[in-house]
Fold:
Amino acid sequence: WQQIKYYIKKSYQIFIPISLVSIIGLYWLRPFVLRIIYPDFVYNRLGLAVLVLGTSVIMLVAAFIQFLLAYNKVSNIVMGWVVAGLILTIIVIYMPGDILTRLETGYLAGALSIWACLGVFTYQALNQMKANNKELSQEASL
Structure:
């Protein structure tokens, strides 16, 4: 229990600063870097920041996925990805605006939804594991 909480906490302590640095760095350095690589490329700063934020959230999901895989909760992982895919599809189809904005918004919403789903599943699995450990310790003391 303590090791799992430690692992998730350390994962977030690593990924959140990396995410913030990448978002801020790409937001401010993007025009300079992209003009060097490809001078004709034009992309909205806010759109790029949304894509980086979505990717950063997906990196945070990795901590939950590792834990759920270790405890054979593959069905929970699949369910989270299905929910994220449905949200992405609904936003792309029904949101007004140009396709790039819809894709960026759908990607971020899908990433946030899988993060929330897998967080809830991880919390449930941790509580179940904690309850099982209490039962085993009570049986051992008898």
In short: The two ends are 23 Å apart (CA to CA). The longest helix spans residues 99-141.
